[in-house]
Fold these 4 entries.
Entry 1:
Amino acid sequence: MRQEKLEKLIRKYLKGQASLEEQQKVDKWYTSFDDTEVLMVGDPDNKEEIRKKMFSNIQSGLVVQRLRDHYAARRKRRRFIGTSVAAVLLLVLVATGVISRYYMKQSHFSAAGIVYVDRHTEAGQKRTMTLPDGSRVRLNAGSEIRFPEKFSKESRNVFLKGEAFFEVTKNPSKPFIVTSGQFTTSVLGTSFNVKYYPEEDQMQVTVASGKVNVTHEDNAVILEKNQRVVFSSADSAWIKRVVTAQDYIAWKDGWLVFQNEPLDEVMPALERWYGVKIVTKSIHENPKINKFLKVGLLKRRVTLKQQNQSLSAVLKALGHAGNFTYEMRNDSVMITISPQKFYLNKDLVTN
């Protein structure tokens, strides 16, 4: 990462303005240091003193300047000697937020003195929480959310990775802003659903009531009740549609609902919902045909609506319509495609 870009990123990090994706970049940069450098600040006898010094330097304004010195020294000599490396690396650790994670397991300090609260759900879990302004959030499986312990006077900013349904308390003078990667969803008071899993190539917003504004780089789209937008990173395309919003927020009430969606998007959702790993295979003797069959199956579209059903019941319904068999093994599922029956059903529809 270029020095200038890193400095800008760290400034955002310390001000509490970095997105989850940007925070991960800073963490990744930190872990790129070699073991010799990192271990030089690892003396257990000095850890508490080191942490206090790190925390006291957060608001000193010296971090970026020391990082410049650090880069210059690295160019001249790869290895550092004695206490000088410790002094520089302490500041590096501050920049990556290590001290914050040490002091607060679920809360994080920013340079501006803001305390951030982190909440997450594992696969197979859902969670409901109330934000400082009274807004309610329902967090879907495999998701993370970060928000300030107390919102600022100007805005209400939260950071999301995964899927969540928001019921926002109305406040015309203080916009509610959800940041998901490079996307922002801004509202004043409404209810809406945001879905953004970084490992997938889509970002989706569905509005249940009110109006929201979704932005990405220089593009923006306004959504009203029963409207949905999907952004595909594969082709950088926005698709805005009129929908029945309830179909896309029913997950919060235990409903699995898929509306003409390809199985390669359904399978990851099932993995998160039930906390399993799903693998597909074909029994054809020709490897090329095997690959074709697996790709063909995953591109098939499915319409499904079931509430509070077991994984076995869901797979049975899909398997019956799609002519595939499945075997459950502890926390994994093996789906087997039958070449003879593969072409019988083009699309899968079940209720």
Entry 2:
Amino acid sequence: MHEQTVDVAVIGGGPAGAVAARALAGQGATVLLVDPDRTPARLEGIGERLMAWLRAEGLADRLPDVAPLVPRRASWAGEKTAHNGEHLVERASMDRALRSAAVAAGAEHVQATATLQAEEGTVRVRLSDGREVLARRVIDARGRAAHANRPVMRGPATLAVGGWLSGEAEPGAAVTPFADGWVWIARPGDGRVWAQATLDARADDAPPAERLRAALAAVAPELAGEPEGLSIRECAPVVPTDAIDPRILPAGDAAAGMDPLSGHGMFWAVSGALAAVAAWRTMTERPGPESEALATRYIGERIRETYLRQARLGRDFLRQETRFQDQPFWARRLSFPDDAPVHEAAEPGVKTAIVVVDGLLEEREVVVTAQEPAGVAFVAGVPVVEAWRRLREHGPADLAAEHGEAKARAVVGWLTARGLTETKR
């Protein structure tokens, strides 16, 4: 029997896999999207940055039951705050909607699981329905399951235990710490409540449902009753430490499982998927070992930088809560991944980095600042290093003549905010 061959097999159809499959199919690749459709019913939060991208891509209207922006409250270190906001979404429905968008773009969806075997110049994908498919490249978006049998850097063993209860209809979301961890309580506004406790996996032999009830008794005693639809997930921050195979590009939690307290996990999953698509396109349009080296370096550096930044953000947030630091959950996490600052002090300057230009990877000069230690290549579509030099040598009028008043204002504003606007008059 003739073996099916595809340009790309995307294994895993969560946000990272579905977005990657849609983008690849939209670029003309033959794409097989493999996912068993087993996402448990739970709520997750989407920040406004990701929602803005979904709107721009025409995907927001596909998502069912997305709640309006609700305040993201925290009762932390004895203070109550309300920063930014988030849209509450039914994760299983969201995943199905994004997979549907990938199919509409031309991807083939198979409801199955898969194992991978790298071969000479290709990857053999063995599906749980018995079929085998050859893929020229693979996007591995299987989540944390992709880390099995691989060397990893992993934080303290952590569980997320969630369940549904009944409560107030007023929509909102809140994070509250307690001695044994912290709890996220989300109210979509229909009388249902999703409560999820983040707990130390080693601290207690009690059943997960009992541990969730104990967490709620500590932070929200009004949410009494037996949680329904219990979800138990391992959620320690984790990142593989081995080299990236150019045939198998990771995305989402398969690339790095982020610290849940740092936030923006879904945003990083989607942006990581788009990074993998840019790496695939670069290797496809510019075949050869140089492009493969560039692509794997780009993905690897991006994963490590993002993982460490998010892990340090989570660590610093934990350190702000001083009431429980002698408790095992807190004590085990106050020094992970290290004691380095979230952003190393960086003098403003120029360095070379890999960036995406018109969908392809290139090494370009970028401006490095304390706020952006990884570097920025473009502001308002303008190459910012060139603009910075032009501004210093010739002043803002020359910049406006080259790029127009609106873009010049955006660039000058960005540079001014970082103290980089000394110019010649």
Entry 3:
Amino acid sequence: MTLTDSADMFLDRLPDDYVNARDAHAAGVLAQRVQGSAFPDRYAEKWDEAHQVLARALAVDPNPGNAIATTRGPWTGDPVWLKDVLQLWDVPIIETDNWRSRGHGDFREVRGVIGHHTAGGGANDWIVVRDGRLGLAGPLAQIVLEKDGTARLICVGIAYHAGSGAGSAWAGKFTTDAKWHTIGIEAVSRGTPPWDWTSQQLDSYRKIVAAILWRLNKDSTWFCGHREYNLVDGKIDPAGIDLNVFRADVQGLIDAGPTGVAGGNPYPPTAEVTGIEAVRKENDWLGTILHPERELRCPDGLGRFAHYENGSVYFHPDVGIFAVPKALFDFWATVGWETSWLGYPKARPDVSADGVWQEFQGGNIYGRTDAKAWPCHGGILATWLRAGGVTSQYGWPQSREVARGDGENAVYHQEFERGRIVWRTSMGPIGTLDTTDRDVLDELR
């Protein structure tokens, strides 16, 4: 029996779930159900190496996506060639986790592209596109175009990006329900004047559209803006772009053809771009980077960070990308950064004339100007925020939470500028501004 015969027999006897697994992660999940291995990540680690070995043995192209990406013509089904064809056009790429298995079902005939803007304009807009918003489940587009020109791949299946095309001339090309037939691009932009498009972003926008239409063997008239397609909801995106000029530019690129190599030219692997540099550009107060690397890896293997003169920027794929001012970072460091009970930052810092504070996964950190920063979390934080937080009668935190006892008998308290809040597990919060009881409450220390 030859290697080819053996491989064919093996594949014929596999359940369809295995054969249809689209990537290393999907295959690994399926295998783990049977094997229960103590090393469940081995499929992802060895996937590429195994394909290279098999390709050498069978003398076939080790990256069949190359042929799919460079073969022009109609396509029905999910655009599995998306990554390869963008690389063929020298578009830098970030692959979100499990993007190849994400979507609201499978494509029908892929006919064209619809362009959008996010209306947020921030480095974390992609999370909303991936996860959705109130009343509309994600994914909301196949691609998010970052301000630095990077294409972030969100999904390969259907995305809820188009809405109704009723009354639009473009419905003749894409039907009145274009999500089944079009790839959606959400470009990061506020969508209000003065227009915040960057030259790198517009360059990639044109290339992405040209790459997809070139692959489908279509001309630039198979691209439209959301505002041209969805008249029912009065859409305005992508705002600030003359779409007729845009289509003319795209047609020029299609006529010239691709300049890259399918399967090549991704972002340099050492960079592991996550948008940290984009956040730095949005926050000039951070200052100069303090290390030669563009960004560094967190101990959990998922997060990334970079340190600057006046703060740091932290990224986690499930939380987002946020700057942390030095006034708060210095306390966060004393408890172990993201490995501590505070976890990763989950919101931008809030600033007032009196100080700065920021929300983390496990609580908040508050730093009054020219004073030490302190954390606040749990029941005490909730009680204090209901009273008004930093503008309340209690003022700013002046200590960490102090605990005594455990279980139902546990008692916690925290000092504030003008009082303290006590939390009894069995009774809930007790707030006091009366300093006469401090001697009694000090017994809790």
Entry 4:
Amino acid sequence: MTQKNSVKKELSERSETRLPIASGSFYPSDKLELTERVSDLISQSGQNPLAGVKALIVPHSGYDYVGSLYGKAYSAISDSSIDEVFALSGSFFHKLESVSFCDLRFWEIPNGKVEVSHRLDKIIHSDDPSIQNILKRNNSVHMGEHSIEVQLPFLMEALGSSFRLIPTMIDGVSPRLAANALVEQIDQNDLLIGVSELSRGYPKDYAIDIDKVAIDSILQMDTDKIQSEMFEASFPLVIAVVNEIAKAKSWKPQLLEYTTCPISQENPRKVIGCVAIAYTQ
């Protein structure tokens, strides 16, 4: 390849790459520091790899706050052979009524690039009339959101760099309809990740009490309770969709770890509830 063609290829890839927005805040921006941090969190988690993990529920807070919980979750899949990862999140900044995918070719983080699945076009253009109207290509809504991005260093450490990503943002749709749109697309060697935290802004003792109710609802796979006003989470719809897909595929949930972290260093008395749950086949 000539130098001119090499430059053209690099520029083309750059224009088709979702650049990191959370490095240096939610996780280290230095490649070596990030790699070592994530490796240590996984190796020191005390969590053995689990057989047959098909889905995870994980948080989206910074590594300084819930790094050990990320380590537990991703250690559970560290012996897995995964082709593609369906990463589901909600939006902090956009009101959606869709299942919105990002089909840029790559997602970049300091320690490398993750390729986006070539199957996205087929998924978006479903032949099923009941779900055609909710499946959208919407790259812009993914640009300023951190929830999926912060999972990528752990995914690369646990799975290597050969997996492909299906970045998915869900809001404003029925959990059962969204699950129907995705369930047949998730193959045997794929992994489903639902990114959500639990309660936010309460004193720790109260947060633990209401989060226990939420966790029980997840472990009981009770979508109605997950969708109720009593269930507090940043993205309850994401959890409900994972739950519906798990029920359809007969996956079973198990609690890996629950913890709380302060909303900020300036406000340590109010906390966020964070949980790691694995679904196994």
